[in-house]
Amino acid sequence: MPEVIGLLTADSDEDREHVNGVVADLVREGFVVPADTPAYEQLIDQLLPQRVPTSATVDQARRNALARQQLIEETGALTAEQVHTAAGLCGSNPRATASRWASEDRIFGVGWHGRTLYPAFQFDNGRPRHVIAQVLAELPPQLTGWPLALWWATPADALDGQRPLDRLDNDVALIAAAKTETADWRFAAGDPA
After folding, report:
1. Which is the most buried residue in 31, 39, 73, 174, by most CB within 10 A?
2. How far apart are CA 191 and CA 170, in angstroms?
C-alpha cells in the first residue's frame, strides 16, 4: 500500500527549483504520482473498497460501536497487566494470568484498538467471578469477543428484561439465561436439540 514518507517544502526560489527537480526525478522513477493524472485516479480507486457499505450497515456499525463504548464506560475494563496486578500476583510475565484465565474459559476479552481488554464486571476482588465460567460453559462456543460482551449488557427475556450483568448475584438465573440463549442459537440454526 502506498504511504507518505515525507513532505518537501521550499522557502526560496532556489529551494523550489531543487524540490521540483527531486519531485520530477521521483515521478520519472514511478515513486510519485501527480494528483492530476489518470494514474492518480487509478491509485485512489485501488484504495477504495470494492463495495460501498449501505447506510443500514453504517448505522448498525455506529450502534454497535456506541454499545461497546457504553459497556466499557459503565463497567470498566482491564488490560492483561491490570488483571495480573488486581489479582495481587507477581511474576515475570504479567500477561500470563489473563491469558491463562481466558484459555480456561474463566474470563473473556474483547478487542479495543488492537489490544485485548477484559470487562471489569467479570472480577470480584481481583479474581474471576465463579458465575462467569459457569455461564461461559453454557453459552454457544461461537459467542465470543464483543458479541459475548454485549450479551451480558442486553436485556434478556429469561431474566425478566434485566441484563445478565445486572444479575451477577444470581448464578441460577444467569445459567438459565445462558441455556436459553444456547437454545435460541440452536433453533435459529435449525438444530432442534
Report:
1. 174
2. 29
